[in-house]
Design brief:
With 295 residues, this protein is α/β, with parallel strands linked by helices. The chain has nine helices and 18 strands. Helices cover 24% and strands 29% of the residues. Helix 8 runs parallel beside helix 9. Bound molecules: zinc ion (2 copies).
């Protein structure tokens, strides 16, 4: 998977930080999280076509997480996408979603599939599972956990070498071996299992019990860190995270990589963030707009 960080500002955008927006380049279709203002333009800077969006996940309906949604929906409609686009959001935010989706006049050329959510299972196929957990914030907010399941994959080069195509592959997968042109072909000699892969999206939240459930054993966690520990009292009052606490969570929950974002405009120098986390959890990425994280 590949995560494109399109914006890293919290409530107030700055000269160097656009509001939230994150694009997950995913085998099962591109996922856009929380398009804040300016999201469309950030797609252009990142060199990604918005046409690659298959799913949009909104964590909550504070403006910095959704004011870019009308522009994105209208853009996708203008592009007359041939694939389906699904939009997921906390059900309690429905009035805001409805208002945003008719924020200005445009020609509705595609239908969006809506998924108002509560905590729990969001979607499951044989390839992946998506879960949602309640976060602690001043409006109903969901964090999301994406799990790519461990799966068998055929080694394409070996299949080509042996001229194996079509329905017999299904038979080989099911039965473990087949007879083909007089030879016995063994599935396990032509295949491998990919590892389970987990991505967790944790914006915005104060300290709460859902965080370990979201991030446990994750390959990448994107977490908000609006504040540094010196502003701990503000973080508590406004139900946001500090960099130090985020690093502690990552260390305690076997996270492989942590990326921080959603920085308060009060911090001009993000090196302060690096310093704040390096003692607790080394593998922390302090995000800048247009960073790309492969995992
Ligand atoms: Zn926010
Ligand atoms: Zn918020």
């Amino acid at each position: 998977m590949k995560l494109h960080i399109l914006g890293t500002a919290g409530q107030l955008p700055t000269r160097t930080r656009s509001q939230n927006a994150y694009f997950l380049d995913w085998l099962y279709g591109g996922v856009l999280f929380d398009p804040g203002e300016g999201a469309q333009r950030q797609f252009t800077f990142a060199g990604i076509s918005p046409g690659r969006i298959h799913k949009i996940f909104i964590s909550h309906f504070h403006g910095d997480h959704c004011l870019g949604l009308p522009g994105i929906m209208q853009r996708l409609s203008l592009m007359e996408l041939k694939h389906e686009v699904h939009i997921y959001f906390p059900e309690e935010g429905r009035p805001y979603f409805d208002a945003l989706s008719i924020a200005s006049k445009y020609t509705h050329r595609i239908n969006f599939h809506l998924h108002p959510l509560h905590e729990g299972a969001v979607e499951e196929t044989e390839d992946y599972r998506i879960e949602a957990y309640d976060l602690l914030h001043s409006t109903p907010t969901l964090g999301y956990r994406f799990i790519d399941k461990s799966r068998m994959h055929f080694r394409k080069e070996l299949l080509e070498e042996m001229h194996l195509y079509g329905p017999i592959l299904g038979e080989l997968e099911r039965n473990g071996k087949i007879k083909h042109q007089g030879k016995t072909i063994i599935r396990d000699e032509l295949s491998y299992y990919s590892n389970e892969k987990i991505f967790a999206y944790v914006l915005d939240t104060g300290i709460c019990d859902s965080i370990p459930k979201l991030i446990r054993n994750a390959d990448l966690v994107l977490m908000e860190a609006t504040y540094l520990g010196s502003e701990f009292a503000l973080a508590e009052e406004f139900m946001h995270m500090t960099a130090e606490k985020a690093a502690e969570y990552a260390k305690d929950n076997n996270v492989k990589k942590l990326a921080l974002t959603h920085f308060s405009e009060r911090y001009k120098d993000l090196n302060l963030y690096q310093k704040a986390v390096e003692k607790t959890y080394k593998n922390t990425h302090i995000s800048h707009d247009l960073d790309v994280i492969e995992f």
